[in-house]
Design brief:
Elements: E1 5-6, E2 9-10, H1 13-30, H2 32-38, H3 48-62, H4 66-70, H5 72-77, H6 83-90, H7 94-104, H8 113-122, H9 127-132, H10 137-140, E3 160-161, E4 167-171, H11 198-210, E5 216-220, H12 229-241, E6 247-251, H13 254-257, H14 264-272, E7 276-280, H15 290-301, E8 305-312, H16 320-332, E9 336-342, H17 356-364, E10 377-382, E11 387-390, E12 396-399, E13 403-407, E14 413-417
Parallel strand pairs: 4-5, 5-6, 6-7, 7-8, 8-9, 9-10
Antiparallel strand pairs: 1-2, 3-4, 10-11, 12-13, 13-14
Helix pairs in contact: 3-8, 12-14
The protein binds pyridoxal-5'-phosphate (PLP).
């Protein structure tokens, strides 16, 4: 008789198999709700044909060719910034047109044709639309401040934000391929696109050279990959030569909003200065299109390590199933979910802000239910620029010098010795 000691009892092989099958049945139940929801969640891979149909229509409206579409400079030049064009593309109610016009007097907007095609597939008012098109809620919002992170008070040198002991941000541009309606730095998004002048970047580099504890430099903006190839080559090269800079990071939404930017020429530059970590911001599975996948694949081949920093946004991704599908789609294209940010109280964005409970409920439905690789860290940025603070559903219910009470992902309560 095959026996093993489990919880003090002896089981036959047959009994073991029976228990295992029972457990497998339970686990199957745990995923049933997701499987029922999954296929009706829009997804860039599954909806590629629909996106293509909108692309054809937009190319016709803009008088562009397939070659134009693949050219990121053409995409940038042809960003949609006029409500008339948007209305001709998707058809808009008179009131919506008036709202967009009203908001655009105060806040700028621009959408790359590529992202507009993805957006049209998701529909007017859909999850991509909310991220890209101005809403009247932006100007009626009286909550929040323009700089809740007090970035102006954490700038020890021009172009630099330093909030941590060993790493900092260089802010290289205010330009983006699409101006997110939930942008936390909308105060920097003026009427004109402006890259930092070379002397500001030089001053930032001088600061890094003079502070040998800085081992991690994050280039961001705006969108770091909207710099020219020549400027990126120069800046990455300068950082590469600083011995104490161990890793370079780029913050960019171009894989989401302008995947055409990821050219062989750009990849050849990135390949010269390892190690490079690139964090993007995919917020919805519809954004993970074949074009986005191709861009990620090229970046990976150039040696970059890819991560995602999603933002929890009401009406976009504040749903456990949507978030799970997003993270699964990202892992398929070799992007590791890194952070899920709780939306900050930035003026003009409060219509996006969820409760922290909603974020916790999403995290609760990820851990254990899916690959650990698909579980980002949920982060609240401490007001005042005091740093990213992780928040987690409670898995340690009690904690004393000799004992912990743990709660498993399935809500089993388990005492555990503290050492
Ligand atoms: C987010 C951020 C970083 C990077 O933080 P990690 O947790 O290391 O990803 C660095 N500096 C500033 C100012 C930041 O806001």
């Amino acid at each position: 008789m095959a026996t093993d000691r489990i919880n003090g009892s002896f089981l036959t092989a047959e009994e073991e198999r029976k228990q295992s099958l029972k457990r497998a049945g339970e686990l199957k139940q745990r995923i049933a709700d997701y499987l029922a929801a999954r296929d009706s969640i829009p997804c860039g891979r599954e909806w590629a044909d629909r996106i293509d149909a909108h692309k054809s229509k937009l190319l016709q409206l803009l008088g562009g060719t397939e070659d134009d579409w693949r050219n990121w400079r053409w995409q940038m030049k042809n960003r949609i910034t006029e409500v008339e064009l948007l209305a001709r593309f998707v058809g808009l109610a008179r009131q919506t047109i008036r709202d967009i016009e009203r908001v655009s007097r105060q806040y700028r907007w621009a959408i790359s044709p590529y992202y507009a095609a993805v957006m049209a597939a998701g529909g007017v008012g859909g999850p991509i639309w909310r991220q890209a098109v101005p809403s009247a809620a932006e100007i009626t919002d009286s909550h929040g401040s323009f700089d809740p992170m007090a970035e102006r008070l954490t700038a020890p040198a021009p172009g630099i934000t330093r909030r941590y002991p060993d790493r900092l941000i260089i802010n290289v541009t205010n330009q983006c391929a699409m101006y997110c309606r939930h942008c936390q730095r909308r105060r920097n998004i003026g009427e004109i696109d402006r890259h930092q002048p070379r002397r500001v970047l030089e001053a930032a580099l001088d600061y890094i050279r003079a502070n040998p504890e800085i081992r991690d430099v994050l280039i961001t903006g705006g969108d770091a990959l909207l710099l020219s190839d020549a400027t990126l080559d120069w800046l990455l090269g300068e950082l590469h030569r600083i011995e104490h800079v161990e890793i370079k990071r780029l913050g960019t939404r171009t894989p989401v909003t302008l995947p055409q930017r990821i050219t062989p020429e750009l990849c050849a530059i990135l390949d010269k200065y390892p190690p490079i970590y690139i964090n993007s911001q995919f917020n919805h599975p519809l954004e993970v299109t074949p074009e986005a996948a191709a861009a990620c694949s090229q970046l990976v081949k150039a040696g970059a390590v890819l991560g995602n920093q999603a933002v929890l946004l009401k009406g976009v991704n504040n749903d456990p199933h949507v978030m799970k599908k997003l993270n699964h789609e990202l892992l398929r294209v070799r992007v590791r979910p890194y952070y899920l940010f709780h939306a900050k109280a930035v003026r003009g964005t409060s219509h996006f802000i969820t409760s922290v409970d909603e974020g916790l409920a999403i995290m609760e439905k990820l851990r254990g239910y899916t690959s650990g690789l698909a579980v980002p860290t949920y982060i609240i940025n401490a007001p005042g620029g005091y740093g990213k603070t992780p928040v987690l559903p409670p898995y340690v219910l009690e904690h004393s010098p000799d004992k912990l009470i743990l709660r498993t992902w399935e809500n089993r309560i388990i005492p555990y010795p503290n050492g």
